[in-house]
Amino acid sequence: MIGRTPGHIVAVRPLRGGAITDFEITERLIRRLFRRARVSRFSRTRVLICVPSANTHVEQRAVREAARRAGAAQTFLIDQPMAAAIGASLPIHEPLGNMVVDVGGGTSEVAVISLGGVVALEAVRVGGFDMDAAIQAYVRNKYGMAIGERTGEEVKFAIGSAFATGDRYQAEVRGRDLTTGTAKVIVLDPEDVREALDEPVRAILEMIVRALGQTPPELAQDLILRGMHLVGGGALLRGMDERISKETALPVHLVDAPLECVVHGAGVCMEIEMFPDRPRS
After folding, report:
1. Residues 59, 99, 238, 203: is their CA dihedral positive or negative?
2. Whole-angstrom Cα distance, residue 269 to residue 245?
């Protein structure tokens, strides 16, 4: 619906950069999710919410308050990198270095986890939405054409990449000419999109390098052997794993379900809390 609505309908994202930007809409969104799960105000529901590690205490308190007003009896928060590590079935409770890179929509985070705790942590408010905006800005500046948020995302999925992959596909992009106001069509190459995405991708790479600089030498040895694990929607960008591996000289593994990894980890946490004696595979 974004970019296609009439004047009396407003399509909004209630969260930006991993933080609540519209408290009322966020509360209504959580209440709608509760209704889909057949949860009522009288069921004394306990809720677990995955939040970016970059969130401040004030932002975390806003999340708890929104869930409380929506009907949650108790609200627990877990950092997304920890949930992702659990969802990826990493041995986080062993004395080994487990590195998780989560490239989400509004934030990107990297954590080194050992013995059930976070040893090194870095986060930036750069993610998939910023990549879409970078493509929009590139097309506007180079070709004098305005495209919508959804079109930028479609171009990213179609021919976007973080590392030269050898693909020669092109994308036909339609938008509005900024000079005449008329419809305009251009053709983008993968090199164009890669150039547009360079700034957000480089911000993510710099975040990873900073986290590696905080990692103790003993755990750094583990990372050389075990590598890092890439999760989140941004992990699906072509060549992202190769680009990170080239910049850090470490193996990079894309997990089996990068989009669902965080929520799978949250589900495991809820099962352990509610059914602590249940045997697990």
Report:
1. positive
2. 30
44 vs 47: CA distance, rounded Å: 10
Rounded to two decimals, the pTM is: 0.86
Name residue 264's amino acid. H
Q: What pairs with residue 174 in β-bridges?
A: 185
User: What is the distance between the alpha carbons of residues 39 and 32, in angstroms, rounded to a whole number?
Assistant: 10
Cβ neighbour number for residue 9 with a 10 Å cutoff: 8
pLDDT (tens digit per residue) in 23-72: 999 999 999 998 898 877 667 788 999 998 888 899 999 999 999 998 88
Q: What is the DSSP letter of 161?
A: B
Alpha helices in 108-189 (DSSP H): 128-143, 149-159
Q: Is the dihedral of CA 73, 79, 84, 85 positive or negative?
A: negative
Sign of torsion, CA 158 161 167 172? positive
